[in-house]
Amino acid sequence: MIARLRQTRALPEMRTLLRHRHVLVVLDQPGALAALPEINTALEATCKRRRVKPDALAKTPQSMSLQGGTLVSVVVVEAGKTAFERLSLLRTASAVLLDEAPDEVALCVIAQDDAERLASEALYVLWANGAPLPVQKKEPDLHPLKVIHLFGARSDDGFAAVGSLATGNLLARELSSAAPNTLTPGAYRKRLRAFAKHSGFGLEEYDFKKLRAMGAGAFCAVAQGSADDDAAIVHLSWAPRGAKKSLALIGKGICFDTGGHNLKPAKYMAGMHEDMNGSAVVVGLMQALAAQRVPVRIDAWLALAQNHISPTAYKQNDIVTALDGTTIEVVHTDAEGRMVLADTLLLAAGGKPDLMIDFATLTGSMITALGNRMAGVFASQAPLGALAVAAGQASGERVTLFPLEADYDKPLESKVADIKQCTLEGEADHILAASFLKRFTQDRPWMHVDLSSAICAGGLGAIATDTTGFGVLWGASLVHSWLGD
User: Fold this and answer.
1) What are phi and psi for residue 24, nearest 5 degrees?
2) Do β-strands 232-238 and 296-307 pair in parallel, antiparallel, or remain unpaired?
3) How many whole angstroms separate alpha carbon 106 and alpha carbon 151?
């Protein structure tokens, strides 16, 4: 639940502002603070004491305590900065306030032009970071932000679209952070049933037994290693009146990944409860788009399973058959994500959507290529690739486009099956994985997002937690561009 918003277009009198114990002041240029002379004077004294020039506010926010105990954080967000830079500055500026877990924050926006945009970005940062992620402690110290008092900007709908994006990001991070013994595939399915009922979404579950009968051998190869037959592909749907296009969102939902028989070392198995992050991003994005009443039919396909080691788990050199009859030679059991996605993509493609986007924490080689600061994207068509990069620039969730050329199919040629799952040579595995997935898209327009930025120590862009929820902002920006909004 995000904080309530109270908004006033006018700037407050100083005595009104000082009734608040935590104040964030966002400027579009250093001189704009003259509108709040008492804070301006305090800032000048603070900068002098710290030997900081006032124009440094565009790089480093400054905070100070006023007489009476009000904590003020001031930041300059210049128009020429990228969305990522703006959101990063706002996160730094707000962190000093949110670290004290206030009940309320006053947000003052002072700008000559586009005050509403500045307010939108600042609100997103406060909303997304003001609700702590749940923990399982005997005495949890959770104090969510309850109210934001906005001065200097106003939206007739209360910045509803921004609120929906923050709520979607929070949902994605909450799901991703859940411990693996509390968010098993079965528990996840139960949550999704409640989510669908509350949101008015359609829901259909393809459980393990049904998928095996259907011939979804790629998915079942991974799922068969779990003691509980709770794995499933869950289909959520939403069709608003007047929708003229259809969108399929596909998410990898491996609730824990041991690596299977090719067991991960402890260092690399830690955190593998977040290997379901792609599915969480899909759920958060779908919620945000539906809340915004975006005129597009949305079908979300979530591949929920665990990758375990057991006598029944799949093995190297197994040959399994996907839903479309494609035979797959298993080369490495820790390449399970592309296996569960293969059958899930085929199910999604069966509805002939106008666009398919899959989200997955798929390969370590994407992290090697990019680190954790942005995600990698592949697109079946050049215009889609351009849209993906532009959405990253617009949203502040940056992506890099990787090639999807035919000659990358050659290493996946198998002597005993139609295709290899991967190779053992380590040759650009993120590209090989995308080439593998493309085989199962039925030539529909398609994008693959390899979420190397799902976890970033210290936060990323607008988000202060290590778990970033990356993809909700980007996805919403991309869908609006794709629709021509």
Assistant:
1) -110, 120
2) antiparallel
3) 8
What is the rounded CA–CA span in Å between residue 37 and residue 373?
A: 38
pLDDT by residue (tens digit) across 129-168? 999 998 888 877 778 999 999 999 999 999 999 999 999 9
Q: Where in the chain is the domain with CATH 3.40.220.10?
A: 4-157
Please tell me which residue in 146, 264, 373, 438 is annotated as part of the active site.
Answer: 264
- On whether the 164-483 domain is CATH 2.50.20.20, my answer is no
Q: Would the pTM count as exceeding 0.90?
A: yes
> Smallest Cα–Cα separation from 227: which of 303, 313, 302?
313
CB burial of residue 406 (10 Å; 0-12, 13-18, 19+)? exposed
- In the beta sheet, which residues pair with residue 304? 232, 253
List, for residues 355-378, the tens digit of each pLDDT value: 999 999 999 999 999 999 999 999
CATH 3.40.630.10 positions along the chain are 164-483
Got the DSSP string for 18-86?
TTSSEEEEEESSGGGGGGSHHHHHHHHHHHHHHT--GGGGGTS-EEEEPTTS-EEEEEE--TTS-HHHH
Rounded Cα distance, 465 and 133, in Å: 9
Phi, psi of 221 (to 5 degrees): -60, -40
50 as an active site residue: the answer is: no
CB count within 10 Å of CB 475 equals 28
Beta-carbon count within 10 A of 337 CB = 26
Strands (E) across 188-228 are located at 202-207
User: Which one of the listed residues 86, 91, 338, 420 is annotated catalytic?
Assistant: 338
Measured between alpha carbons, how far is 369 from 241 in angstroms, rounded to an integer? 42
Residue 85 has a CB neighbour count (10 Å cut-off) of: 16
Q: Answer yes or no: 264 catalytic.
A: yes
* Cα 43 → chain centroid: 36
Q: Where are the beta strands (DSSP E) in 121-271?
A: 147-151, 202-207, 232-238, 245-257
Domain 4-157 has CATH 3.40.220.10: yes
What is the number of alpha carbons within 13 Å of residue 57 lying toward its C-beta?
Answer: 25
